[in-house]
Specification:
about 140 residues; alpha+beta; Ubiquitin-like (UB roll); 4-stranded mixed β-sheet; two-stranded antiparallel ribbon; 3 helices; about 20% helix; globular; binds zinc ion
Length: about 140
């Protein structure tokens, strides 16, 4: 199965926007999942512009709450997410992005963001750093 590299029509994006239930801040949470392995990669937020761009371009774009701007995944790290399937949950308030993740999804250099496991002895990091943040961003991560 190969990942699609081009997006859907603007009309498809408009119809998706009409189906989604945005919160008071105009955002919807989006979970990214590797399309072929089922691995859950990360969660981030999308506003209407991010939804439209993701669907029409076929490249995942989020809304960065900290930067207050569109966040084209991989634009600084090169770790892009190609959209395979854009799913909307039963009540329209959560997005599931089936993607083809290039490299690592997490800014810490791990494949996914969910590398901390709750154990009796306390939270434990259970997944390795695969790419150093310095290599991803050319500087130490904050
Ligand atoms: Zn992360």
């Amino acid at each position: 199965m190969t990942a699609k590299s081009s997006g859907l029509s603007p009309a498809a994006a408009t119809a998706a926007l009409a189906t989604l239930a945005f919160d008071a801040d105009g955002l919807v949470p989006a979970i990214a999942q590797q399309h072929d392995t089922g691995e859950v990669l990360m969660m981030a937020w999308m506003n209407r512009d991010a939804v439209r761009e993701t669907i029409t371009s076929g490249r995942v774009c989020y809304w960065s709450r900290s930067r207050g701007s569109l966040w084209r995944k991989g634009e600084s790290s090169g770790q892009v997410q190609t959209l395979v399937d854009f799913r909307i949950d039963c009540d329209g308030d959560t997005i599931l992005l089936k993607v083809d993740q290039q490299g690592v999804a997490c800014h810490t250099g791990r494949r996914n963001c969910f590398f901390t496991s709750v154990r009796d002895a306390g939270p434990e990091v259970v997944d390795p750093v695969l790419v150093s943040p310095e290599q991803l961003y050319g500087k130490p991560s904050q």
